[in-house]
Amino acid sequence: MSEAIAVADAVAPAEITSTNRSLPRILIIDDEAAVRESLEVLLTLEGFSVTIAPEGTTGLDVLAREEFDLLLLDLALPGESGLDLLPRIVELRPQLPVIMITAYGTVGNVVEAIRSGADNFVQKPWDNEKLILDIRSAIARRRAESEVILLRRTLKQRYSFENIVGKSDPMLRLFDVVVQVAPSRSTVLIQGESGTGKELIAKALHANSPRRDRPFVPVNTGAVPSELLESTLFGHVRGAFTSAVSSKKGLFEVADGGTLFLDEIGTMGMDMQAKILRVLQDRRFMQLGGTQEIQVDVRIIAATNVNLQNAVREGRFREDLFYRLNVIALELPPLRTRKSDIPLLSQHFLDFYAKENSVDQKVLSPESLRILMDYDWPGNVRELENAMERGIVLANARVITPELLPPQITGSSYTATALEHRPDASLFELMEEIERRIISDRLERCHWNQTEASEFFKIPLSTLNQKIKRLNIEIRKRPRE
Q1: What's the CA gap between 276 and 255, in Å, rounded?
Q2: Which DSSP string do the residues of 171-212 spell out, in sequence order?
Q3: In whole angstroms, what is the distance from residue 327 CA to residue 188 CA?
Q4: CATH no. for residue 467?
Q5: CA end-to-end span of the chain, whole Å?
């Protein structure tokens, strides 16, 4: 084999984020001919395209001209060592995964290599199976990270959907509809399971409309007590009720010129439905206790996880209001039907919460990603977000391993976990611990929405609150959508 650059199965350079690419490309920089030949044969048989260089200067020249998916870099090169070259490689190709290879692996070398930007460290003689696994994992992680960056850039340019991540066919079709619908004045009904991101879509509709510079006002109608909802939406005048010591604008008036987002509209009582219908028809309303009509220019976007057509048939939702809301209907797909988005979403949330918590960026291990892909996600994107936030908080290393994932995702039982941590506890104490874990997990999956959790458990909200107090469960502030 020539000591010059030998190229095996060369392919045209391609962007790392391209989805229409040929074989993954690997560059090997090593001064030992036997090592280069051995790696070339192994990697070619495993389906990689291999380029080899005998020393660092030649390797840097190749990197400057061509794109690669991964670099295998020898530590002990003639002239400049691999550690000397690594900072220049990172500067030249910051997204390129680098695995260091050496016969002299010391703790100091490993630490210095990782700090300088290497992804991994392999000692000669290597285990072929483990080396291939490390290579595939590093390439998969960097592709996922690059796709997140590319997708954010594309969405920002085309749609300004900065917080929505997805490249699956259902999501891309939804994005196209949102872009087409956003500039209109039409009422929109967003339907989808809890946790699918209905408020994010509502915000995207507002952000891409002529109303973008006016208020976007969200209200969770299911979380506001029915006796307060009318005052919340329409406002009240002084003296309208005992505690009305001053007049107050309602959210319809606050949203004038902008967008009012009515979330969980399927939970609204029949009396309030009639009042909402009148506003949709006339764009007029009266404050509670008032005598003068107020006219507003508000676009209504409503959302529900309830099948409103069934609710109409069962007499729980007004048919005329349903048709007023259902001018344009958007259906958000559950996460279990778009699992190809899970790698992108996971990395998006890991990056976000790493920044929120001021810690280094984290990545999922291949086994953790497999577990996420196999799970059915009853809590949808919100549940995935909570799982990634948990991983960031609990992780002591760069890689999120399966034991850092919530037990309902990995299949760990509450009973086994309680027994493991409290082997000397009484039966009463174990049952209390299991109840605490179940309620805490459900609250986390509901983004700490106690009303939603009480509906899931089919118990009154007051009963849930009593259990939360008795079990000393700390309620966290609901994160931003």
Answers
A1: 15
A2: HHHHHHHHHHHTTS---EEEE--TTS-HHHHHHHHHHTSTTT
A3: 6
A4: 1.10.10.60
A5: 58
The pLDDT value given to residue 413:
54
Pairing of strands 363-364, 399-400: parallel
For the chain, the residue count is 481
Contact predicate 461/451, CB 8 Å: yes
293-295 and 284-286 beta bridge pairing: antiparallel
- The CATH number of the domain holding residue 84 is 3.40.50.2300
- What is the average pLDDT value for the chain, to the nearest integer? 83
d(CA 350, CA 362): 6
Give the structural domain span for 49.
Answer: 6-139
Give the pLDDT confidence of 113-123 residue by residue, as tens digits.
Answer: 677 678 888 88
Question: Over the stretch 390-431, which tens digit does the pLDDT of each residue have?
Answer: 999 998 888 898 888 988 888 665 555 555 556 677 777 778
Is 451 a member of any domain?
yes
Residues 209 and 118 reside in one and the same domain: no
Domain total in the chain: 3
Residue 200 shares a structural domain with residue 277: yes
CA 429/CA 320 separation, integer angstroms: 53
Residues 119 and 194 reside in one and the same domain: no
Degrees, nearest 5: CA angle 146-149-154: 120
